[in-house]
Task: structure prediction
Amino acid sequence: MMSHSWTQDPILTVEHLTMRFGGLIAVDDVSFTVGRNDITALIGPNGAGKTTVFNCLTGFYKPSEGRIAMRHGGGVEHLLERMDDFRIASIAKVARTFQNIRLFGGMTVLENLMISHHNRLMRASGYTLAGVIGLRSYRTAETEAIERCKYWLDKVGLIERADDPAGDLPYGAQRRLEIARAMCTGPLLLCLDEPAAGLNPRESEELNQLLRYIRDTHQIGILLIEHDMSVVMGISDHVIVLDYGQKLSDGTAQEVRKDPAVIRAYLGVDEKELEKAARQGDEALKAVVRDVKAIESSGAPTGGRA
Amino acid sequence: MAVAEAKAIAPSRGLDLPAIIKDCLLATLVAFAIFFPTLGVKTDSTGGLDIILRYRWTAVFIACAVVFAGRLLLQLLVWNRAAAATRPASPLAQRIGELELGKYLGPVVLAMAILMPFLPFTDRYVMDVAILIVTYIMLAWGLQVVVGLAGLLDLGYVAFYAVGAYSYALLAQHFGFSFWICLPLAGTLAAFWGIILGFPVLRLRGDYLAIVTLAFGEIIRLVLLNWHEFTGGPNGISNVPRPSFFGIPFTRGEEGFAATFGLPFSNLHRLMFLYYLAMALALVTFFVTNRLRRLPIGRAWEALREDEIACRSLGLNTTNTKLTAFAIGAMFGGFAGSFFATKQGFISPESFNFLESATILAIVVLGGMSSQIGVVLASIAMIGGLEVLRQLHFLKLFFGADFDPSQLRMLLFGMAMVLVMLWKPRGLVSSRVPSVFLKQKKIVSSDLVGQGHG
Result:
């Protein structure tokens, strides 16, 4: 196997990650690495466990098993499976966005970004005490924070709407604002949960450019879940495919695209192939086909693992 | 239902007199159904054991006539005009209007409040009511941090008011501390109890949070009631030291305030001092909470109200953020409690029942969750309004000379609250002023602002 950028100096190493909810195994012994300066896409059919992996990485779930190591470089390493979610954001420097956008709708665009500077500003305001009496050091820190906000507002094209409430923005702009807000925390790894969902082709193209810009200019790793294959194939340096909680394939976009296992997962198994197997007397396969037909005729839900 | 129909019909037909009359008669019929059993029939004793029914047709007639006339006026003037208006006022103009409201109304109210004790009609009663209003403003500003900013519904806020009052009374009684030493101590103790309450409710939301905070308020009251040795139980603590003007007491003698400054003695001096003391404490509350809103901690509270999970994803320690909200809110409650103790000179658990919590919360809700000027207006309307309702002697015309209007005030007040909440469901001043802006400060409309999860 040829050597890839993500195997040499990974920023994130996930080893044997397993997440169980009662009897359901949502993620089953998944291992992968994320390159320091790569755009890595996590893809898979609905219910494959992509968002569960994300929630484990960012501390919203505590994994049942496994080890997640975030390497800042220079020997600094954080084991994410043991950290609280907010420490993962503030100390391990992993920022994330959400599948269903989670903005502070009643606060302005600028305020949304200012929240990302919370920890820095709290220190500058002497944990509020110096801020209440209005020390200059806090005001300087606040001005700096606003400058950083302006930089990102400019990059996502929302500088004109800085003083509008975030809940008033159109959908595409809300997605971009959420990315800008995550970037304002100063992350080393940015995790995006379906950033292109609901975007039109032009907006998706803008998103691709933004993500490339973030990767190239700010030298950070991006991990994204995506269903939109034009985004995935267009910008990903590295693609990881999950299905039924297990890793199916791992490689560059070109490699993954040709992988027969991936094609089978996405397009299904050819019926002729099934029939051939059945003719050859594979009893187990016959049983599976019978079960599937029974389930389909009874109208019970067959999928739906979200 | 009839209202909705009228609104729906009016724009298409213009002035439809038969429909309007029909609607008014319908409303009057409903009014009769309500007023006949409540106003029209009175049970009276004949002196013996028998009870006879008396009918008061005049009262019922007047009530029904008022409803008919009111409905007719609404139909002709308000609903009709609203339908006839070609377009509503632009939302931008409304928003700017609300921004200006705070800018100009605030100083006007403050100036009136400062001048109030010197106005000619000001007597003991007016001063007492004014002090009460200012105390409630202060309490409501404190509670606003918890409910309005952080979005955590606290039904037991009176507990911190009680902690503040008892802290001052007990510290002054046992150690002889003066008011100014006790004030920060009472605030600290109340903040400490705020954190004690905060810990168990960190994971609770919505109804569950409300129930636990309600229980907390009751626990504090019951402890104060039953711990005889420490708090004096139901007898309370009397002889709480009265405030003095930098060591000069407000008494009649040579040492007193009036004699020292060469003024004729007046009971009002003490009340005026208390009033200004309450004003000063309230203004401190105002400036601190106002500043906190603009600091990272205040923004974090508001973000917590909007979306807790997003907060955590951005590295905010939501545990600390919630606890500080409870602690800061409780601290101002403690200050107000201290003031209450020194004003009354006597405290007992009776003063800290659930009704107090409910009143403070009602002021915050009525004023608007995140508007400080709204709370001032709501406090004046609620506390002042309740007092005005005591004075409605003209109601004796309907109910006879032995009628006591103060009996009806809670009923009237409840009705007024319902009407106001129908008219302005998110409080008098419901929009939100952003804490930081780049070019222009734009008001955030209330329908975008989250209400918190509990």
